[in-house]
Write a structure and sequence with these properties.
388 residues
């Protein structure tokens, strides 16, 4: 029995068999290689070990490019004040980079159930890294930023660790969404209600969990043929005026729009907006994010590139780049070197973030941090949880 990995790990080739049953990213693929002559038809139909291990480079490319956008956007935050163009670019990237990541994570959660092997995998690849890195980021702020009152709180995610706890909650609820007749409208309704519910509070960053939920549910509904449609030449061509129009609109609205609508971390009332605007903006932002996500996915290369293998190490890139961003912030680099807000400085910041997160995704870093991002923990589980 195969175990359910997190979205950060390398994805296999989408199955070419019937799609009535959801597949997961570590399910063996029955790629259609011609059967060699053998003693029986059953033996001939079985995939060879090489075919079984074949990966689809497209999804690794998606994950690598998305994590680069995440790191670059985080690097822009301390230096974009005063630059309307940078703020507009930031708004564009923030509109779709996490929705794209969440949609892919939903796609690779389609076969998740509460069987012991998959629960074990969920704990070791999502819950344990959340505990370790939530603690690490809290201690880093306490000592690097001279904040002795900084508490370690596992129910109040710090900075980027919210995605791990959100992924845990979304994946645990996967069987529910796959049971409902119309899961996406239900998820949208929940997101709209969350956006007008200030009493939800900050525990487990539930506002983000609920407001980003529709993208995860949409991923659960996706099939390989949907990605083939997205990657058509017509879609790529249509995405060009889409991004151009979005950039012009973002430049026009940049000085006036609250970035909180992009973060989805607060209700409308907490942003001093009318309560009904939360529901309206939830639908509007979902539509904008979906359109830009489709445009992004359309341009991701389908073949192997030099960065394809790095898609398997995006969990390290995601969890480590925050130390670089926060470390520079705590050290006062952005305040000391004000030229970083100039056009040349923004290029330097962007390239530094992109190169750094690329190095963090390399196999060497992945092997070094495997104890924290993908621990074995056989000692913590019953023997039958391995599915053997």
């Amino acid at each position: 029995m195969f175990q359910a990995p997190s979205v950060f790990q390398r994805a296999p080739l989408p199955p070419v068999t019937r799609e009535s049953e959801p597949r997961h990213e570590q399910t063996l693929t029955a790629t259609a290689s011609r059967p060699a002559a053998g003693p029986s038809a059953r033996d001939a139909a079985a995939p060879t070990p090489a075919a079984a291990k074949k990966r689809d480079p497209y999804f690794d490319n998606v994950k690598y490019l998305a994590i680069v956008l995440v790191a670059v956007a985080h690097a822009w935050e301390p230096v974009m004040d005063g630059s309307r163009a940078t703020r507009a670019l930031y708004m564009i990237v923030y509109t779709f980079h996490m929705p794209a990541f969440i949609l892919i994570s939903g796609y690779f959660s389609r076969s998740f159930d509460m069987t012991p092997p998959k629960v074990k995998r969920l704990i070791t690849s999502v819950a344990v890294p959340y505990v370790l890195f939530e603690t690490a980021y809290s201690l880093f702020k306490r000592y690097a930023d001279d904040a002795p009152d900084m508490a370690i709180s596992l129910i109040d995610p710090f900075f980027l660790t919210w995605f791990l706890i959100a992924l845990f909650i979304w994946r645990v609820t996967t069987p529910i969404w796959r049971t409902l007749r119309h899961p996406l409208p239900v998820a949208l309704a929940i997101a709209m209600l969350a956006s007008v519910s200030p009493d939800i509070g900050d525990d487990l960053d539930l506002q983000r969990v609920l407001q980003f939920l529709p993208f995860f549910v949409l991923g659960l509904l996706m099939k390989p043929e949907h990605f083939q449609l997205v990657r058509r030449r017509e879609v790529r061509l249509l995405s060009l005026p889409l991004f151009a129009g979005a950039l012009l609109f973002a430049y026009w609205i940049a000085p006036h729009m609250q970035l909180g609508w992009l973060y989805r971390a607060n209700s409308a009332q907490e942003m001093d907006a009318p309560w009904w605007s939360g529901a309206v903006m939830t639908l509007a932002m979902f539509g904008c994010a979906l359109a830009l996500t489709i445009g992004f996915l359309a341009w991701v290369p389908g073949r192997a590139r030099w960065f394809t293998a790095l898609g398997a190490g995006t969990i390290c890139g995601y969890l480590l780049h925050g130390f670089l961003i926060k470390g520079a912030e705590y050290a006062g680099l952005f305040d000391r070197y004000t030229w970083l807000s100039d056009p040349v400085g923004l290029v330097v910041v962007s390239l530094t973030a992109a190169v750094a997160v690329t190095l963090m995704c390399t196999p060497l870093v992945g092997r070094t941090l495997k104890w924290a991002t993908e621990p074995d923990m056989k000692w913590a589980f019953r023997k039958d949880s391995a599915g053997r």
